[in-house]
Amino acid sequence: MKRRQFIALLGGAATAALTPPLSAHAQQPMPVVGYLMSRSAADAPHLAEGFRRGLRDAGFIEGQNVRIEYRWGDGDFARLPAMARELARLPVAILAATGGEPSVMAAKAATSTIPIVFAMSGDPIKMGLAASFNRPGRNATGVHVLNTQIEPKRLGLLHELVPQVKTVGVFLNVNFSSAEAQLMDLQQAAPQVGLNLHVFRIGADRDIDTAFETIAKERIGALFVAASPYFDTRRAKITALAEHYRVPTISQFREYAVAGGLMSYGINIAAVHRQVGLYTGQILKGAKPGDLPIVLPSKFELVINLKTAKAIGLTVPPTLLARADEVIE
Fold first, then answer.
1. Are 317 and 296 in contact (CB under 8 A)?
2. What CA–CA distance (Å, rounded) separates 112 from 114?
3. Do both 60 and 203 map to the same domain?
4. ∠ CA 55-58-64, rounded to 5°
5. pLDDT tens digits for 105-124?
6. Do 273 and 253 share a domain, yes or no?
7. How many domains does the chain have?
8. How many whole angstroms separate alpha carbon 99 and alpha carbon 173?
């Protein structure tokens, strides 16, 4: 046997000795990902699917090479800390915290070592999750959705929709950590477009019913639903009551308009969840969360439901229709 052939055979034997049999690979457990969501499984299945789509794009398919443990807050933020601690104790390889600050801060409190991939409006630097946007540097990264920051823009769009209205009702979720900042931004923006605000501090479902009764009694001309995961879980109730009382309303996500809401302006939230899933997959492959830049949204969608406009007897200004990204007819 020639020396070169002998060395090749020897190298092949060494490689074979170091390579475990296929059965050993099959016996390795799948990584477990925790999915902590402040909303409900009933109102946000498309967001969970967006997350799984991102995982698939990164090469991970649920049930084949990754397992997902789902925890849903159903809009009750007080449940989230215990859920986050439960996921951390399993333990999970990564904790995907979505649905805003309540779930993200619950995840942050539950672990300082497990990678966290988040989607929220709050400033991740001020909240102690990241050192910077380009290089977070810690155990968390994700998407900064800028949803609460565009409340003044939404208020301006509502004014364009019903310029004759002088008083706008505002639904503010008192259990949402960004509520006071949202209110401050709205109070600063309202005088610029000649509006008065009637603020409804909503903490429970009965408050929604009471608020609509007040809107009807006091003839408040329009309704602004401030961004909050709690309102997202109650969007069917809010949109139905708004149509019943014939109140022009603006909300944050397209799903409100699809559910019968009059108008929405905000990010594509399903695309945000895909990005969370994509980052989760990259971390499963070995990327460090501190090296993955925090993503900022590049597009906001204006959606108008003309069916609802007709149902409440409202004519949408043509200039506003022309700027809509989607018109539901």
1. no
2. 6
3. no
4. 60
5. 999 999 999 999 999 988 99
6. no
7. 2
8. 14
